[in-house]
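Section 3.1 - Work completed
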Amino acid sequence: MQGAAGEPNPLIRYAIMALVLSIVLVIRFRRMNQVRPLKVERLWIVPALYLVITVVAFAATPPDAAGWALSVIAFAAGAALGWQRGRLMKIDVDRETKAVTTVQSPMAFLFIVVLIAIRSGMRSMAQGGAGGLFHMSAASLTDILVAFALGLLSVQRVEMFLRARRLVEEARRL
């Protein structure tokens, strides 16, 4: 029996998480087809900030050898998926002003929804700690997910930068 000081029902926690996630996704979906300026010279900022977060996370709880290996694999998987997500982003250059704009494609949006679902599922499976499905600590799993996110965010922006630069050069030649 749970008392007043007991842990809240896990279903309530999942319902709150689903509600917040739904609100965020609805807002993102409504803004999906909007054309936005793409500041090519600022694409490095998010990966740089996330690199700092990654360094802090790894310094706070350094992984063991297996954790490092899994983090490298997660980074590579994130990089591959980031490249694909970057390719899904529509980038245009105005021929006259040379302004770069971007529109999130529906596939890029769906891609993020699937990644959020996978991450939530992994978190649920690993909640048992060392005895959980993955047989690793929450800190190790966090390091792996942080490495994955670093690869995803960084390489997505590298791909977008390279493509935007190429499109700007093509627009200048015309």
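Second construct:
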Amino acid sequence: MDVNWSLYLYTFLASIGGGIVQATTGFGFGIFVMVFFSLYLPLLSASALSSAISLFVSSTLVFKYRKHAQIKQVILPVICYLLISTSVILLAPSLDLHWLSIAFSVMMILLAVYMLFFSGKVKVRASAVTALSCSSLSGVASGLFGIGGPPMTLYYMTLFHDDKLAYMGTLQLFFLDYSHSKQCDTAV
């Protein structure tokens, strides 16, 4: 069997870039690597690989910010995320991959437009409804595309707008939980 070593190099380099983005901003690993992984892997495989690697990235960041993570703020969103993501992952193989690829492209464009023009302007109120809404969107986006960070980033930025360390610690703990759960879901 002929091994294409360049794909391993691309995966490694994209992961390093994604790790830098994640460590700097608190999110973005999945967004960054999915741009590259989806070029040479089927979309659902790229999503699973992104989640597997992000488990290691999130682990190191959770360790770094462990004293600032607020576990109580992760419980409800992770439970909701698990339910939605598991359902989406079980449904995903039956979806038409052509339309799923188009949906991924549209999502990436909408994400870029949001980050360029609206990221500082959109405000949400921190509440249980917002936590459930953001974690549901995160579950769908992560289950299909491996990009579940932006909705939860918006929620935790609202919740911890005056405490950057609590924001980073809690967000990374959520990402660690969702990366781990995604691996369990993908194995199903």
